[in-house]
Amino acid sequence: MRLTRIAVLPFLTVVVALTAAACAPAAPSAPEPTSTAPSSSKPASSRPTPTPTPTASAHADPAVAWARERVADLSLEQKAAALLMLHAPGTDPDPLRAYVEAGISGLILMGDNIAGSPAEVAALAAGVQVDPEAPTLVAIDQEGGDVQRLPWDGAPGPAELRSAPVAAAQEAFAARAATLAASGVSVNFGIVADVTADPESFISGRVLGTDPAAAAERVAAAVTGEQGVVMSTLKHFPGHGAAPGDSHSTVPSAPLTIEEWRAGPALPFAAGIAAGAELVMTGHLVYPAVDAAPASLSAEWHRILRDELGFDGVVVTDDMLMLQHNGLAEFADPGENAVRAIAAGGDLLLYVLPADPSEFGISVDGLVGSIVAAVESGRLPASRVDEAAERVLELRHSLAP
């Protein structure tokens, strides 16, 4: 992956140090913070300017160079298609492979894709691969406990890990990663970095800690456990625990200021990023004190993720159909939602589609057409599409044998 400049706030530095100590035997060391991140509550003149860590140029990374060369050879339509990760139900590889042959970058497996054994799922995953230099991402939600697609995953889930020693989270996610890899999965959408102590919260059964510090330690341990076996994803940025409601059918709102967010929900995400997570999933959540738009469509939240938390991996959205399901006219147009997500800074758009996507007005051609039209009209910079495609293709290339 790209070399990352991390500009973390002082309190994030403390959390990163604590979580690194908790996972010391196997965790990779995090870069030293280089500056204090800007605070939106201070005048611009008082904000220190983050400075890059003096390291080798990212241009020296052959994966980065490969991705740039590949993207330079793609048409605008091909670049737009490369920003999609889709689902097709069933265990027949043909519908899934058809999406891949249309140029998309990833597939998400749901319960309806899971046959009776790891070998059968691995065969399905192998059957959709068409590009040995850039394997298709095969993702799954395998958190353990309440949310898991593979019934043969016997590792402890969040309910057990919340009260267990931190090392247990690393062991559980190492075992989970091995199970996923044996089933042909390359990306786990399985590390919940949300935090809440409210038992009535929609997300309460899925969090790894009921306070920010405990969650941060276990999130970092989970990433460490998965390292080098499957790619780790932190979700649901900037934190579902503070936002009451279910984002599958509403747009939950969190009543926190940016300072309160930095002191709480930010900590598990910062720890997971420092531990080496390759992806961060944005939630369809609103923090009105920061931005009126859902985080998945918010340029400000993407700026915070990149500039303050130092994340330089792939930003994937939560299922984009969730925005349409909330019934708000603002989010009724799937093409508009796609353009807004990419313009905000998203790299990979996730769609958990039914057998007939036209039911929701969605097709690969339609989504690609909306993105292309936005570029051609000047609304969406071509450089933003290039940047997103390069990140996604770099991630895919890292899977090549």
Description:
The protein starts with 9 loop residues before the first helix and ends with a helix. α1 crosses α8 and α7 (166-182) runs parallel beside α8 (212-226). The chain has helices spanning 10-22, 62-72, 76-81, 93-101, 118-126, 158-161, 166-182, 212-226, 258-263, 266-275, 299-308, 321-325, 334-344, 364-376, 382-397; strands at 84-86, 106-109, 137-140, 187-192, 231-237, 279-282, 314-317, 349-351. 39% of the residues lie in helices and 9% in strands. The model is unreliable at 2-12 and 23-58 (pLDDT under 50). With 401 residues, it is α/β, with parallel strands linked by helices. The chain has an eight-stranded parallel β-sheet. It has a single domain (10-25, 61-397), classed as TIM Barrel (Alpha-Beta Barrel).
Could you outline the blueprint of secondary structure elements for this entry?
Elements: H1 10-22, H2 62-72, H3 76-81, E1 84-86, H4 93-101, E2 106-109, H5 118-126, E3 137-140, H6 158-161, H7 166-182, E4 187-192, H8 212-226, E5 231-237, H9 258-263, H10 266-275, E6 279-282, H11 299-308, E7 314-317, H12 321-325, H13 334-344, E8 349-351, H14 364-376, H15 382-397
Parallel strand pairs: 1-2, 1-8, 2-3, 3-4, 4-5, 5-6, 6-7
Helical amount? 25-40%
Cα Rg:
20 Å
Counted beta strands: 8
Counted by DSSP, the helix tally is: 15
Strand order of the largest sheet: 7-6-5-4-3-2-1-8
Shape: globular
Category by helix and strand content: alpha/beta
CATH-derived topology: TIM Barrel
Return the CATH class: Alpha Beta
Give a quick rundown of the structure.
By secondary structure, the protein is α/β, with parallel strands linked by helices.
